[in-house]
Design goal:
Layout (H helix, E strand, L loop, with lengths): L1 E6 L4 H10 L6 E6 L4 H7 L5 E4 L4 E4 L4 H12 L1
Parallel strand pairs: 1-2
Antiparallel strand pairs: 1-3, 3-4
Length: 78
Amino acid sequence: MQINYYTKYGCSLCDEGLSILRRFPEIDVNIVDVEDDVEKYHSYLLRIPVISYDNGEKELGWPFDENDIETIVSGFKC
């Protein structure tokens, strides 16, 4: 399962969220730094960290926890 993870350098919440995601080896995390793209910066800066999945059709913003990620992974396997 591949997700996009919208983040930025120096974001402690983003670091915390990434540590949760790394507990799921079946997830391929594509890290997207919102500061590298003006459009993404304006769309995501106040909401990061954000997980985008199902080919970008669904998003989950902070706060999220291990149970939320398990729900996403379980839904993907079905």
